[in-house]
UniProtKB/TrEMBL annotation, chain A:
It comes from Candidatus Thiodiazotropha lotti. This is DUF2244 domain-containing protein. Keywords: Membrane, Transmembrane, Transmembrane helix. It holds the Pfam family DUF2244. It comes from the Bacteria. The chain crosses the membrane at residues 31-48.
UniProtKB/TrEMBL annotation, chain B:
The keyword Heme applies. This is Cytochrome c oxidase subunit 1. The lineage of its organism: Bacteria, Pseudomonadati, Pseudomonadota, Gammaproteobacteria, Chromatiales. The chain crosses the membrane at residues 35-54, 74-95, 116-137, 164-190, 202-230, 262-280, 292-309, 321-343, 355-379, 391-415, 427-448, 468-491. It comes from the Bacteria.
Length: 159, 531
């Protein structure tokens, strides 16, 4: 989980960018998939060449499954949440497979930290107003979520 | 971009899991790990019961309890249940529990797939058990008397129970592939910031290689058993010489899976040892990089030496020479691993708690099993030993210490972490000694039986083999019953006992020991610090 905080001195806008933790870039994910494809295909083609052609569909299905798994996990790992705070509004932009944006009026904005009474689940940081709330920083660990709540409060009060 | 509004209540999807829903719908790696381990324990007793019946039958020459087909059906089921039902799920259970905690990840990369990969297993186990039971019913056909290798033409001729077995193998394969993909994606993409591949815990490395091996070999087995199914029901002749096919082709398909499967079973336990031995020697693992290199070498060579199981089929001299040299070469990286374990212990402040006792026993007995493996790799010698009890003794000396004892070591090492209680050390040690002594009494005499010419997979034997068989069967009773003590220790530890600290063992290192014992339902709410 990565939390980046940037404030442009020329404008009155604060921007918070939140990404989930990831070790592989898109490029590396593609190479990983190609590596698996090469290895599985080599084995399947060898057995096809000695008459066991029924290995091919199983290898194909497996490669497809590996591709879907790596793609889904990479999409999830490469999604990000951008919080833009200007003088009047707070915008939360979720980018991933489907982009979405929510806009709240700053004057009415509430920041809520919901803690799970059982302690089984991490807390949830919600921002919103007029009964409409959205979760921010779901990728973050507890400590970072606390920092985000503090940063949001400071940014809203400061600008 | 679309503008949407998310309602607070709609967004609150974190229900508290309770009762059966917690387990059936679980996406939590710890719960799924527990399910895997409980499943494996159940199957261990089922597979163990069939082994006890086999040894009871072999207590005396002649046919006492089992007719020849039922005897071979038990042999088949014992192997399949132990390999696919007990050892692999137990290793997957350890992986599920420990990998996210070791790499500082909140869960597995694909939690729903994780749930699916476990819940396929009970269905597969049911099919597997049905394959054993079906012949007892009217119209159920003949018993599966092929052994776990399922060689045609015998496997084409047996009754409908073989179809159950083929579908069970498919389900088990799907489960293994799903689990492997999940583990690979988790290890490659979800390590804590700062944890590189070459600083990853060794258990994670062993599972990365194991998962990769599974992905390579499972489609080949799936293709092989499907071809068998086609030969049985759809008029094809893949393995029928009369129709232009070749039964030896199935052997190649099977052993291309079957030989790497040995490393699939072994490597997770090698990973466990890489944590247990340093912890109880109070020294870092000797030669981390060489261990990784040795493991990769074992996996690579292990993929291309499968036909050493088939020396007697009449391969060309060039082919058998290649497979012989390749097989013997594997002993070099395996020897390096053993050397690293001994070097880790060297001048360490060693203590001998149960996990360490198992670790030392593994180093000794696995080396012994490896040496008899080198004997079997030599073509002229193997021609004599092939299909004898010597082979049975060899692979039990490899797989019991190499895989099962490693898993026992892992269970005793991490049980305080999982349950929050220390297990009863005295009982643990009693279990270790009865288990190891029972094991050696069972399998050591089988070397002599094999060398003297007793064939495997035959219900009866010559009178001259009686003494060693009696000793072996007495050992099997001690060995089998000792597992009841394991069950008692596990239940006792779950129910209570001395409170375990976060770092249950003085010399234990790793992120998992930074967490509470037992860890919270969701872990890593504080960022792990990777130095």
């Amino acid at each position: 989980m990565i939390l980046r905080d940037s404030q442009n001195s020329d404008s009155d806008e604060a921007v918070l960018i939140i990404n989930p933790n990831r070790n592989l870039t898109w490029q590396q994910s593609k190479w990983l998939f190609l590596f698996f494809t090469f290895c599985c295909s080599t084995v399947a083609v060898y057995f096809y060449s000695i008459g066991a052609w029924l290995v091919l569909p199983f290898a194909g299905l497996e490669i497809l499954l590996i591709g879907i798994s790596i793609y889904c996990q990479s999409c999830c790992a490469h999604s990000q949440q951008i919080i833009r705070i200007d003088s009047k509004h707070v915008r939360v932009i979720n980018s991933g497979r489907v982009d979405s944006e929510q806009c709240f009026h700053k004057s009415w904005l509430k920041i809520i930290r919901n803690r799970d009474p059982s302690g089984w689940y991490p807390s949830r940081l919600l921002i919103g107003s007029h009964g409409q709330f959205i979760e921010v920083g779901k990728y973050l660990i507890e400590e970072e979520r606390e920092t985000l709540a503090h940063n949001l409060k400071s940014a809203i009060e400061g600008i | 971009m679309t503008t949407t509004t998310l309602n607070h209540d709609e967004a609150h999807h974190h229900d508290m899991p309770t009762g059966w829903r917690r387990w059936l719908f679980s996406t939590n790696h710890k719960d799924i790990g527990t399910l895997y381990l409980l499943f494996a324990l159940t199957m261990l007793f089922l597979g163990g019961a069939s082994a006890m019946l086999i040894r009871l039958e072999l207590f005396q020459p002649g046919i006492q309890l089992l007719d020849p087909d039922l005897y071979n059906n038990l042999v088949t089921n014992h192997a399949l249940i132990m390999i696919f039902g007990a050892v692999m799920p137990a290793a997957a259970g350890l992986a599920n529990w420990m990998i996210p905690m070791m790499i500082g990840a909140p869960d597995m990369a694909l939690p729903r797939m994780n749930n699916l990969s476990f819940w396929i297993l009970p269905a597969a186990a049911t099919m597997l058990i049905l394959s054993f039971i079906v012949p007892f019913f009217p119209g159920g056909g003949t018993q599966i008397n092929t052994g776990w290798t399922l060689y045609p033409p015998l496997s084409v001729q047996v009754g409908m129970s073989m179809d159950f077995l083929i579908f069970a193998i498919h389900l088990l394969g799907i489960s293994s592939v799903l689990a492997s993909i999940n583990i690979i994606v988790t290890l490659l993409n979800m390590r804590a910031p700062g944890m590189t591949l070459m600083t990853m815990p060794m258990f994670c490395w062993t599972w990365l290689v194991t998962a990769f091996l599974l992905i390579l070999v499972v489609p080949v087995l799936a293709g092989g058993v499907t071809m068998l199914l086609f030969d049985r029901h759809f008029g094809t002749s893949f393995f029928d010489a009369a129709g232009g096919g070749d039964p030896v082709l199935f052997q190649h398909l099977f052993w291309f899976f079957g030989h790497p499967e040995v490393y699939i079973l072994l490597l997770p336990s090698i990973g466990v040892l890489s944590h247990v031995i340093p912890a109880f020697s109070r020294k870092p693992l000797f030669g981390y990089k060489s261990m990784v290199g040795a493991m990769l070498t074992v996996a690579t060579i292990g993929m291309v030496v499968w036909a050493h199981h088939q020396y007697t089929i009449g391969m060309s001299l060039g082919a058998v020479t290649y497979f012989m040299i390749g097989t013997i070469l594997i002993s070099i990286p395996v020897g390096l691993m053993i050397f690293n374990f001994i070097a880790t212990m060297w001048r360490g402040a060693m203590t001998f708690e149960t996990p360490m006792l198992f670790a030392v026993a593994i180093v000794l007995m696995f080396t012994f099993g490896g040496l008899s493996g080198v004997m079997l790799a030599v073509v002229p010698a193997d021609m004599q030993y092939h299909d004898s009890m010597f082979v049975v003794a060899h692979f039990h000396y490899v797989l019991m210490p190499g895989a099962v004892f490693g898993l026992f070591a892992g269970v005793f090492y991490w049980l305080p972490k999982w349950t929050g209680h220390m297990y009863d050390e005295t009982l643990g040690k009693i279990f270790f000694w009865t288990n190891v002594i029972g094991f050696n009494i069972t399998f050591f005499p089988q070397h002599f039986l094999g060398l003297a010419g007793m064939p495997r997979r035959i219900v009866d034997y010559n009178m001259m083999f009686t003494e060693f068989n009696v000793i072996s069967s007495i050992g099997a009773i001690i060995f089998g019953l000792s597992h009841l003590l394991l069950l008692y220790i596990v239940i006792k530890t779950i129910r209570g006992g001395k409170k375990a600290e976060s770092r249950a063992w003085e010399g234990a290192k790793g992120l998992e020991w930074e967490l509470d014992s037992p860890p919270a339902f969701h872990t890593w709410t504080v960022a792990p610090q990777i130095k």
